[in-house]
Amino acid sequence: MATFWQKCQHFIKKYPLIVLLVIVVGAATGVTTALANYQMITVRASVLNVRQGPGLSYNVMAQVQSGQKYTILSSRNDWYQIRLDNNRIGWVASWLVDNTEVSQATNKVGIVTSEEANIRQTAATDAGIVATAKAGEKVTILYQAGGWSQVLVNDSVGWMRNDTLRTTSETATTVQSNGGDASQVSQASIKTVTTKQTAYLRNATDDNAAIVASLSANTTLTYLDTSGQWYHVQTKDGKKGYVPSWLVSLSANDQPAKTAPTKLSEATIMLDPGHGGSDSGAIANDGKSYEKTYTLATAKLVAAQLRAAGAKVIMTRTSDSFVDLSPRAKLSNADGVDAYISFHFDSSPSPNQASGFTAYYYSTSKDIRLAKTLSASLGNVLPLTNKGVEFGNFQVLRDNTQPSILLELGYINNDKDFSDIRSTAYQQKIANGVTQGLLNYFQ
Fold it and tell me: Can you tell me the distance from the alpha carbon of 388 to that of 441, in angstroms, rounded to the nearest whole number?
């Protein structure tokens, strides 16, 4: 009697094509099963920026087009890590249609046709209303699907029903006007562009085109024309070339454009650990513990937490080094930061005489809202008494043109306060409070 293996060999010889088909189908099934274990995303925005990290503070490394599909490698802070076709790895916003992630050169202008149209939080008739738009008012259309349009109007992003507006052929561009507010204007109104980060001026509208010049962040260029998603510009020394639209801000005057951040991940924060080096600051009752040590340790924890939230962080010092007061404010002004926070620990005339923390401001127009917001958030997490917000005539605030505050986060010559000040747990609570305060401030 023939063995099972002999029967198999006979069948293979007699029906080789059938056997081959079974093998191919089996292999394909295995591949399909393996691929099903991966999560895929499809780009919905017309153009989506791919960034080097999970946040808007990271540089743009590439752009992908609507309809393209990518495998998700990991996720963090509402961002997806994907692998591009050229095997590079980058990050995209999980919501895929946020205005900051859609190229300025691709948005269209819509005109409101209803007498009064509601702009809602989501694409649903029962969603919360974030704003209203009047008949004839212009909005920027970011994305359309399912009878709804995601729009930007008067700095609010929301959803409108398609039957309440008419799409035009006009390309929308958010440009900073003379008053510093964002308004929708035509391409003809653009006078200058300002680089958001380091960039290259190229001789053609291509990432691989020859480099005409290297441009540092905050370089202002004269606008000449628009070519697709690139701007034709000229440097102050007369060099002409092209820069990508997603790497610059636009201005309707001759001043550098500065777009106010609407979320922490778009913001640049300067942290100033008070004192340092030969300037020890206040001294604890033990005679050997210095304020400069704890301001630096605290600022480093705050920096780490803010960077994890996607913010760009600059520190006036990162070691036990002396930095004079004037350069601290000048550094803030030069970088045009969105918030400046100076960290200190107070001292009273006599030991154990005072306790608590205080937020100081200098300007009621630019500083006080930041001071009040952080005072409230710190009050929710710190064990010490919140002494509120006070005016402070400090040089780092007085000479600062940016929103700036000085925090006195406890009395170093109060034994009870100092037991908290020296602990990492307390310093981490400060980091939590500052981060939450800035999240509230930039919204």
Answer: 17
Sign of CA dihedral 75, 94, 200, 183: negative
Whether residue 248 contacts residue 190, with contact meaning beta carbons closer than 8 Å, is answered with no
Q: What is the pLDDT of residues 118-156, one digit of tens each?
A: 887 667 788 777 677 888 888 877 666 678 887 765 545
For 267, the token pair is 């913001």
Q: Which secondary structure element, helix H or strand E, spans residue 340, and what is its range?
A: strand 339-346
- 235, 226 in Cβ contact below 8 A? no
Cα dihedral 350/352/358/362 (nearest 10): 10
CB 230 within 8 A of CB 404: no
Taking the C-alpha atoms of residue 50 and residue 58, their distance in angstroms, rounded to an integer, is 10
Nearest 10 degrees: CA dihedral of 214, 216, 217, 221?
-70
Using DSSP's 3-state secondary structure scheme, residue 252 falls into coil
What are 114's strand-pairing partners? Answer: none
DSSP 255: S
Residue pair 217/200 in contact (Cβ under 8 Å)? The answer is: no
Please check the confidence at residue 397 and state whether its pLDDT lies above 90: yes
**What is the Cα–Cα distance from 383 to 180, expressed in whole angstroms?**
40
Q: Three-state SS for 34?
A: helix
Residue 124's Cα: distance from chain center in Å?
Answer: 27
Confidence tier at 238 by pLDDT (50, 70, 90) = very high
- Asked if 418 contacts 412 with a C-beta cutoff of 8 angstroms, the reply is yes
**CA–CA separation, 228 and 93 (whole Å):** 23
